[in-house]
Design goal:
Elements (H helix, E strand, L loop, with lengths): L1 H27 L25 E5 L6 E4 H11 L2 E6 L6 E5 L1 H18 L5 E6 L5 H16 L3 E7 L8 H14 L4 E10 L2 E8 L5 H15 L26
Length: 251
């Protein structure tokens, strides 16, 4: 019995030692790193980088046809351009005969044009109370018309403070009237919805126009077209002497 107990104790000690060593080894091991993206890697495969057996070629002054990749590369070299793989998932892959540097330049230019055409729409907030008077209502309605005319969205809401939440029907009527008065300038994106202590209404512009930019361009064009007119120098009129005349003096 004594020998068996000693053996059990020894095996327990060896087990704990092995677990400790395993934990230390895991802590010392470096964490796996994610593969880094190579930003210098070309976006498309060109010329010798194209490994498939045959491709379909397209391009200016070239009939669309399927030919061996080696023959397509030779044709590109004869024309002084590159063989660029533009649709690698097609069967067979589609390649264009084009100057690759020019191709990248046209892509960047197209992206800039698309980005320039995008209009940023801002959301303008207008706050009401459940018992907003007529003067305050018309003042905020005027601002909402300006916001929608400039292409911005309008978020109108009625804020209920304390026991004024009892007048939520009155707030809903106010927002519906507000939407009706702005019918020519925008369309309702979301009907009045009660969220906590706020009843919210969203109105989107009917036509997104960058009016500020257009106004600046028109003003600049008018200033360039207007001829400059020199102003004639102002001549001060002589003041007539109205006092008593003295003999021998001219005035």
């Amino acid at each position: 019995m004594i020998e068996s107990s000693v053996h059990i104790q020894c095996t327990n000690v060896d087990l704990h030692t092995a677990l400790d060593l395993l934990n230390q080894k895991q802590q010392l091991m470096p964490a796996p790193q994610k593969p880094r993206r190579d930003h210098n890697k070309p976006q498309h495969r060109i010329n010798e980088q194209i490994r498939c057996r045959e491709v379909r070629i397209v391009g200016d002054d070239v009939e669309s046809e399927v030919m061996p990749t080696r023959q397509a590369i030779q044709l590109a070299q004869q024309k002084g351009v590159d063989l660029v793989e533009i649709s690698p998932n097609a069967v067979p892959p589609v390649c264009r005969l084009i100057n690759y540097s020019k191709f990248l330049y046209q892509q960047k230019k197209r992206q800039k044009e698309l980005k320039a055409k995008q209009v940023k729409i801002e959301v303008k907030e207008i706050r009401f109370g459940p018992q907003t008077d007529e003067h305050d209502y018309n003042f905020k309605l005027k601002h909402a018309k300006e916001f929608l005319s400039e292409g911005d969205k309008v978020k109108a809401y009625v804020f209920f403070r304390g026991r004024s939440i009892l007048f939520k029907e009155q707030g809903e009527v106010l927002l519906l009237r507000f939407a009706n008065d702005l019918e020519e300038y925008g369309k309702v994106e979301q009907m009045p919805v009660l969220e906590g202590k706020r009843m919210i209404l969203f109105i989107a512009p009917k036509k997104v126009v960058n009016t500020k930019k257009a106004d600046n361009e028109n003003n600049a064009a008018e200033q360039n077209n207007e001829p400059k007119v020199k102003k004639a120098p102002q001549v001060k009129a002589k003041k007539e002497y109205l006092g008593p005349k003295v003999e021998g003096e001219d005035f």
